[in-house]
Write a structure and sequence with these properties.
9 strands, about 10% helix, about 20% strand
């Protein structure tokens, strides 16, 4: 009888903690504020997305600014050159404008998005004897579908998605600990412990997660 092959053990590489390095922010067509942070490894692609989407960019210079940015969701970059930038609470928007060096009206009203700043560019007249150039740009391809990017601190279960902080436990008899959703595959969520980000990734079903208490969320 031939011997059974030895089982190979595969060591899991701990995830590198991600730290906010810059924030993309702006408004949608309805004037609703939105923002998301990106880490240093995503800075180049995030800056390109800001140009494509006409968003502002804030470089985070110190721990206080990074702690402020951590209130937002970690953004998602798409192959089309765009990014997913979720909505944020309106009271956070003036602080982003301040970090970006933008003046805020004395009555507290925040200014318009970057697309509306400054006077409109003067139209260029075509040279004599030449046909006018077409100004319409080809539409960008739709962004590929991806996992739902949830609220940073969800108050309802249907708000749980990538970047959400929820409660999970290591076993039925263990305490609940804060964990961040870093991946979704159907109803299974990949999470990392918020206070122990270098620990191996854990997998939990949606019904095995809990929301933070309202006072903390």
């Amino acid at each position: 009888m031939s011997a059974k092959p030895a089982t190979q053990l595969v060591a899991e590489v701990p995830l590198r903690p991600m730290t906010p390095a810059l924030v993309l922010f702006g408004r949608d067509d309805a004037g609703r504020p939105r923002a998301a942070w990106f880490d240093a490894s995503e800075a180049k692609l995030a800056a390109h997305a800001a140009e494509v989407m006409n968003l502002r960019v804030v470089q985070l210079a110190n721990d206080e600014q990074r702690a402020f940015a951590d209130q937002f969701t970690h953004g998602r970059l798409f192959g089309s050159g765009r990014a997913f930038i979720p909505y944020i609470r309106r009271e956070l928007f003036p602080r982003l404008l301040e970090l970006a060096g933008v003046q805020v009206d004395p009555d507290g009203t925040d200014l318009a998005p970057a697309a509306e700043d400054g006077p409109p560019a003067a139209p260029q007249e075509p040279e004599r004897g030449s046909l006018p150039r077409a100004t319409s740009a080809a539409p960008l391809p739709p962004a590929p579908p991806g996992p739902f990017v949830g609220h940073k601190l969800p108050r309802e279960r249907d708000e749980i998605g990538l970047g959400s902080v929820v409660l999970a436990h290591e076993g039925p008899d263990d305490l609940w600990w804060e964990a961040e959703v870093i991946g979704i595959n159907g109803t299974v969520h990949s999470l990392r412990w918020r206070d122990y980000p270098t620990e191996p990734t854990i997998l939990r079903r949606a019904d095995e997660l809990a929301l933070l208490p309202p006072a903390k969320a």
